[in-house]
Write a structure and sequence with these properties.
This protein is of the alpha+beta class. The protein folds into five domains: 84 residues, Helix hairpin bin (Helix Hairpins, Orthogonal Bundle), CATH 1.10.287.610; 246 residues, 2-Layer Sandwich (D-amino Acid Aminotransferase, Chain A, domain 1); 76 residues, Beta Barrel (OB fold (Dihydrolipoamide Acetyltransferase, E2P)), CATH 2.40.50.140; 122 residues, Orthogonal Bundle (DNA polymerase, domain 1); 69 residues, 3-Layer(aba) Sandwich (Rossmann fold), CATH 3.40.50. Helices cover 36% and strands 20% of the residues. It has 25 helices and 22 strands. The strands form six sheets. A five-stranded mixed beta sheet has the order 4-13-12-5-11. A hairpin with a 3-residue loop joins strand 17 and strand 18. Helix 21 packs antiparallel against helix 22. The two termini are 46 Å apart. 38% of the residues are buried. The structure holds 2-(butylsulfanyl)adenosine. The site of 2-(butylsulfanyl)adenosine has 15 residues, from strand 5, strand 10 and strand 13. 2-(butylsulfanyl)adenosine binds next to strand 5, strand 10 and strand 13.
Length: 678
């Protein structure tokens, strides 16, 4: 597994529009994977926890599922090889936590588990054979269903009445989303009386909330018209909508429910002892169940059925990234039991990414907010994962040259994890005789300034600060949900602001008048008023969002948070950071008053601590946990935001940096003393 894959974040092209997906900056990323296994375990756990956070809470993953699963596999292999080390660091939750903190939470009557995953047919067959060999199982009957791609939900019916619906949460406790679930089509508030079947006193129904492809495309088209950012994947749309906690929006955007399992049922014999019959019973009560499922009796039949799902899934109206294989018989399921995180009677099979061939029509060059030039492949439209795709980024000039892509080539386009389209390869046998290698432009495609290349950059860049493309990208970044999040400021509006000269820099946004906005194309007085209100609200956005949104060199999300904790106001930042003082003062003068993070309590509150070298007794993870518990923040590199360096044996560059910047350096004994507090 190459960790570098995690750092590759592409623009996402869906139905022809290249989305600005946030790029991880150096400050956001964990430093190169260390060779020491204990440190590797800690780094991987932190990395995975960060991806879980993005996936479950923000529904905006920055790596695809296969790359994520590879991280998980790496960690599992290390933990198995070094059980002693693994036990010393706090464990990683078996899966993420989707609780938002904004909704009431409740305990699931029976915890919601995850599923083991496999990616190839050998692993699938091995699972079937292993399961059949388990005591008390014999040759089980298998059920195979599509794996719906949305968010897990647990519906609790008491006496036949929907009492509440919860997200997975951490598996034990989930967010209350009852109001949203009641707005889903076909979810009975009361289970109807069905002749011959008594209503269970308690019934937990497990399912998935998802958005069909057609609604995903429709919602995105509407958003495009409104100048709002598109959703990258239907799952993101489903999660984002449920979070809004507005039932009208749930219905308007076309969210759906599918039910595929049962948790607690009381009395225990209220439902049949077979999964298929149970689903038939749920359907009889009016609950939506998978429209199609397959059955199999042997490992080979299971593999055939999974392959059949793989072929059929292109025509499914709902997003799916795999198949789920389950033992049908409940008694056998009970005999197999569960591990801490997943049942032993089920397995998720993830399909390899979809691939289609198309013709490369052009290679264009995009200008990023820092002036970096990125080649983009423009190809004949192809259907991929439910959307029409016409573009994909090609990373950089070297990547393009190495792959020897030429206009006119037949290329394979794939959507990794059904999210990010990429050019997977060239079919050289189809290369037309006249195709010539692409020559990277020597001038910026937007402002025609000669490009420059500095050793530190990955490739050529436009050195012109005033380049309109850079100005647009910087403002797009600033207003994006990942940064200050200003609703209504989509790419079209930003382009109009820059083209008209009304706002080309962030401070100028805050000097806009209603008549400036109303003069722009497709902006009426009402829209202008709404935009001004959105700008007004954003003056008080969290300080770290401002710092991150301004796109200062080397300031990613992590560092922005560090600086926000430490300096707390634009005025303090202006003092601490002379090279940006003018900008901070200009913003303050324009009425910008960002909200500082809550004051943390504890003896190390406000401290930004960097650990370096081996401490005599504490591991790095233990030290970091203790510092955070005491209200401090732990950073990976020594910067001017650093207030303290804790050094052990064998330190080098960080100690050097601390000396240069005049940051206090202490050892473990002093750290322990400070942790205890005054
Ligand atoms: S069965 C004990 N069946 O995938 C878990 N899950 O990655 C029983 N999912 O937690 C789950 N489609 O949220 C099952 N046909 C299906 C599914 C499915 C999607 C989700 C579900 C599960 C997750 C695991």
């Amino acid at each position: 597994m190459k960790l570098s894959r995690c750092l590759l974040v592409l623009g996402v092209a869906v139905a022809g529009a290249l989305l600005p997906v946030r790029t991880l900056s150096a400050a956001d990323t964990v430093s190169p994977i260390p060779s020491d296994p204990a440190a590797r375990i800690a780094v991987l756990r932190a990395e995975i926890a960060a991806h879980d956070e993005r996936y479950f809470r923000a529904a905006a993953p920055v790596i695809d599922d296969a790359a994520y699963d590879a991280l998980r596999r790496d960690l599992a292999a290390l933990e198995t090889a070094h059980p002693d080390l693994a036990a010393r660091v706090p464990p990683l939750a078996p899966f993420g936590d989707d609780r938002t903190g904004a909704a009431p939470t409740h305990r699931h009557p029976t915890p919601l588990l995850s599923l083991e995953k496999s990616y190839d047919y050998d692993a699938l067959r091995a699972f079937c054979v292993r399961t059949a060999a388990a005591p008390g199982v014999g040759e089980p009957a298998w059920v195979i269903e599509p794996k719906f791609d949305g968010l897990a939900v647990n519906l609790v019916y008491v006496g036949g009445r929907l009492e509440r619906a919860l997200t997975r949460g951490d598996g034990t406790v989930g967010d209350d989303i009852t109001a949203a679930v009641r707005a889903l089509p076909g979810v009975p508030a009361d289970l109807p009386a069905v002749p011959g079947i008594a209503l269970p006193a308690q019934l937990e129904v497990r399912g998935e909330i998802y958005v069909p492809w057609a609604d995903f495309v429709r919602v995105n088209a509407d958003r495009e018209t409104a100048g709002a950012a598109r959703f990258v994947h239907p799952r993101q749309l489903a999660v984002g909508t449920v979070r809004q906690r507005d039932p009208a929006e749930v219905a308007r955007r076309g969210l759906r429910l599918v039910c595929f399992g049962v948790g607690t049922v009381a009395p225990a014999d209220a439902l049949p002892g077979s999964l298929r019959l149970r689903l038939a019973q749920l359907a009889a009560w009016g609950l939506p169940v998978p429209p199609r499922s397959w059955t199999a009796a042997t490992a080979d039949e299971v593999a055939d059925a999974v392959a059949a799902v793989g072929r059929a899934r292109r025509d499914f109206p709902f997003p799916t990234d795999g198949a789920v294989i389950k033992v049908d018989d409940l008694a056998r399921q009970r005999a197999l039991g569960s591990s801490e995180s997943a049942p032993r009677w089920a397995l998720a099979f993830k399909f390899p990414p979809d691939r289609v061939a198309t013709v490369l029509l052009a290679i264009t060059v995009q200008v990023g907010r820092t002036g970096a030039l990125t080649p983009v492949a423009e190809f004949a439209p192809v259907k991929l994962g439910g959307a029409t795709v016409t573009r994909a980024t090609l990373h950089n000039r070297e990547d393009l040259a190495r792959r020897d892509l030429r206009i006119g080539d037949t290329v394979w386009v794939e959507k990794a994890g059904d999210v990010i389209p990429a050019v997977a390869g060239v079919d050289f046998s189809k290369r037309p005789g006249h195709a010539v290698p692409f020559v990277f432009p020597r001038a910026c495609p937007e402002c025609r300034t000669a490009t420059e290349e500095r050793a530190a950059d990955a490739g050529p860049r436009c050195p012109n600060d005033q380049c309109p493309a850079q100005q647009r990208r910087r403002l797009e970044h600033f207003v994006s949900p990942a940064a200050v999040n200003i609703p209504g400021f989509g790419p079209a509006l930003v382009a109009a602001l820059v083209a008209s000269g009304h706002a080309v820099r962030v401070p100028e946004l805050y000097r806009l008048q209603a008549q400036d906005l109303a003069a722009l194309p497709r902006v009426g007085p009402e829209t202008a008023a709404r935009l001004l209100t959105a700008l007004e609200t954003s003056r008080r956005a969290e300080l770290w969002r401002w710092l991150y949104g301004l796109g200062l060199p080397q300031v990613g999300e992590t560092r922005a948070k560090e600086w926000a904790r430490r300096h707390r106001s634009l005025a303090a930042l202006a003092d601490a950071w002379p090279e940006h003082a003018l900008l901070f003062r200009e913003l303050a003068a324009a009425g910008v008053r960002p909200t500082p993070p809550p004051e943390s309590a504890g003896p190390l509150a406000g401290q930004v601590v960097v650990l370096t070298g081996a401490l005599p007794t504490l591991t790095r993870t233990e030290a970091a946990a203790a510092i955070e518990a005491a209200g401090g923040a732990v950073a990976s590199t020594v910067t001017r935001a650093t207030t303290l360096v804790v050094a052990g044996e064998g330190t080098g560059a960080k100690l050097e940096a601390a000396r240069r910047l005049g940051v206090a350096v202490i050892g473990e004994t002093e750290l322990r003393r400070r942790l205890r507090g005054p």
